[in-house]
Design goal:
Number of domains: 2
Order of helices and strands: EHEEHEHEHEEHEHEHEEHEHEE
Radius of gyration: 22 Å
Strand order of the largest sheet: 2-3-1-4-7-6-5
Helix content: 10-25%
CATH topology of the largest domain: VC0802-like
CATH architecture of the largest domain: 2-Layer Sandwich
Shape: elongated
Distance between the termini: 49 Å
Largest sheet: 7 strands, mixed
Low-confidence stretches: none
Mean pLDDT: 92
Bound molecules: S-adenosylmethionine
CATH class of the largest domain: Alpha Beta
Length: 363
């Protein structure tokens, strides 16, 4: 006989993260909100019991580097049959408004890069087909607008779903699973293409056609290609060889050297600086500091990939952010991107106006 059960769970928070980042997410959350306790967890998915008096998840979501998305937990549904489980999802939402339904699979070893899998889409369709009569149909796995209420359904295991809700606010909180995904374009020479594309979408950095970008650690060239596809002019600095397709691009120039070897005044021609060198974070920060604080260097924004060579480097993230702020970048945020590795991306902008806030993703 098929079994079906659901359990309401409040006041709990849920959060999803990259595989392997769960312990870091737990300690990050407890440093952001003393009194919070991790509860049910699976790879890529953690719930937290909230302290008395906790009222807003927005601050945690905004400040967390490791949570891809987070929200209030409504409870879980364990059902052998999707048809029987679907109405229970809507029961857990009770009378709350819902503008969007986001359904996705938690991260798993060897699992798909895009959490919005065909299975998630299929289950989402079934949830919508059993939406309670008093509700209007809502879009499935679409990007929400700021302020809209999102119902989250995370597929934990076959027949086990976690149901949550959150309000769309910061850019990633509007995406299904807090992740922006696209297929690798055929001309991309490395996976760094997708990482840079996602980083541009997340940061909203307004790199415009014709803007001069410099990338430290550019070989073989995927991330430079993502910038070139935006119409930027890119100078890649790397002692290693660039892919010949990138070298052939008319808006690309390669300087075969280390970032610290180019005279600092030469950076006066660039508006944006990207760093993706496989060196210790301190090395990247020292090099970038020397460049962006040099007189007359007009870098408006920086996108820095910092490798977490050991997880305990996480403790230094607040001081890294402070350091970037001290260079005059007042708007500084960090995130572990789903498309990156054991690393974080820091985006620093001199002015908020340098962000393309709320626009649709573009190539
Ligand atoms: C992760 S790969 C970069 C991937 C690249 N962004 C892409 O899109 O294909 C790291 C690169 O950093 C380069 N690198 C290491 N130390 C460097 C330094 N001091 N200055 C510039 N590049 C450096 C390495 O040669 C290597 O090509």
């Amino acid at each position: 006989m098929k079994s079906c059960a659901s359990e309401a769970a409040t006041p709990f928070l849920f959060a999803t993260c990259r595989l392997g980042a769960e312990p870091t997410l737990k300690s990050e959350m407890s440093s952001l909100e003393p009194g919070i306790r991790s509860a049910f967890a699976r790879p890529g998915f953690v719930t937290f019991k909230l302290p008395a008096g906790f009222s807003s998840s927005d601050r945690l979501i905004l400040k967390s580097v490791f949570a891809h998305t987070a929200g209030w937990s409504c409870g879980s549904v364990r059902c052998d049959s999707t048809a029987q489980g679907a109405p229970r999802v809507w029961d857990l939402v009770e009378g709350r408004r819902v503008h969007h339904l986001h359904v996705w699979q938690r991260s798993s070893r060897g699992g798909p890069l895009n959490p919005v899998t065909p299975l998630a889409t299929e289950i989402g369709r079934q949830l919508l087909s059993r939406i309670s009569r008093d509700r209007k149909p809502v879009p499935l796995n679409q990007i929400a607008q700021r302020g809209q209420q999102i119902l989250d359904c995370i597929l934990i295991e076959p027949g086990e779903w976690w149901v949550g809700r959150h309000v769309a606010n910061a850019i990633p909180s509007r995406w299904p699973a807090g992740v922006i995904h696209r297929e690798m374009p055929p001309h991309a020479v490395s996976r760094a293409y997708l990482k840079m594309w996602a980083c541009l979408q997340w940061s909203g950095m307004a790199i415009a056609p014709g803007d001069g970008c410099v990338e430290l650690g550019s070989a073989p060239g995927g991330s430079s290609q993502a910038l070139l596809d935006r119409g930027a002019h890119v100078t890649g600095i790397d002692p290693a060889e660039m892919d010949e397709n990138v070298l052939a691009h008319p808006s690309f120039r390669h300087l075969r050297m280390r970032g610290s070897e180019l005279k600092r005044r030469a950076f006066r021609e660039f508006r944006w600086l990207i760093a993706d060198a496989n060196v210790a974070p301190k090395h990247t920060l020292d090099t970038v500091e020397g460049i962006v604080t040099y007189p007359g260097v007009p870098i408006r924004g920086v996108l820095l990939t910092l490798k977490l060579l050991q997880w305990n480097l996480v403790e230094q993230i607040p001081s890294w952010l402070e350091r970037v702020r001290s260079w005059g970048y007042r708007h500084v945020r960090a995130r572990q991107l789903a498309s990156g590795g054991q690393e974080i991306c820091i985006a620093g902008m001199r002015h908020r106006a340098l962000r393309r806030v709320g626009r649709r993703p573009r190539s």
